[in-house]
């Protein structure tokens, strides 16, 4: 099979970017659009949002709206940079171009670590659903099966990943649209067997803010991390048929649709179901709502949807981790063996990313009370670190692009630089809120420690490279 270790033009050591010739171009616009939509719709929305509702009550709608605005700004900034310079390393390449190799090293390897641990967590979640359907079967066997399937998918041509993710995302999006349709009918009293609830659940039992500002803060933190995953579309864009047009269109269409799905879902749930109903946390808010409406077999239907969401996330995260690792190596920031391309696919990077993910699963069995908890805490705020690098890089690169290559600004950040500074201020506020809350303070510290360690290694490598060059 053909192979190469040469850096693709999209990820040269100087950080410059162009369409990725080394990687294959097997993704179509429909793949990118669904990756953008489906990449962020995961178990965090279907199940994890229940904890946010329990903490914030009906004001969870406000929490998701605020965090959704922040994510829209971040994605607009990332879309601007990725349309101007498509690269499989995405924000890592942009950070390197803006601040030097240490920044690309830090952002890239932190994100790779996050994705690999997430693959393990998603595998565990999917295995738990399967053992519920097939009692007596070992969880690790299901995880191993899923890993083999998606590792194999990602080892093959990128179009196979695109097809898997297209249909996974289509099913998730279809489930959300159907849920919203049923919910709206129930709210207006048009659903057979149900009465319009009015504002009873929104204003009764403690009001719209039952736990005050503290509850809203907890809900805000929960909602921020539920939006993680959109970044994968800008990584995938480098392997699309038309990288510039593809990422521009995918970012434009995905932002408002995801805001509709997230904010709309939360509004439907808290309007139809009392926020303090224990089923919202125990079963998940979507299952609790469908049960409340008397929809038959709601629990099993949503279990299938959650399983699809988890498997989709595993597939996307193995892909994203392998491309990020391959990009870093192509820029001289990792073991050269990981950067080898076979048929346009970084297969060693796919294998290493999958093995690391499976190792995280094994740690959850062997050392659940120390090492595995440490892994979870370490990745707790990495997505915020990535968003910070995106915003800071856009501040620098926008001015540089306007000065040197203004024709590349196909997508532009709104009201630059005001909204970029607003986004940075929002991230700083979330960091401060995390430091206030006992449950998230530990995550902030461990993530901060990992970020500082990676930055220090990156600085040393950058100094050493400068010394060799001189």
UniProtKB/TrEMBL annotation:
Membrane topology of the entry? Multi-pass membrane protein
Residues forming the Amino acid permease/ SLC12A domain are 31-441
Tell me one Pfam family matched here. Answer: AA_permease
Task: Give the organism, scientific name.
Answer: Streptomyces gulbargensis
Listed name of the protein: Amino acid permease
**InterPro entries referenced in this protein's UniProt entry, alphabetically:** AA-permease/SLC12A_dom (IPR004841), Amino_acid_permease_CS (IPR004840)
Cellular location of this protein? Membrane
- Secretion signal span: none
Keywords noted in UniProt = Amino-acid transport, Membrane, Transmembrane, Transmembrane helix, Transport
| Region (Disordered), start-end ranges | 1-23
PROSITE patterns registered for this protein in UniProt: AMINO_ACID_PERMEASE_1
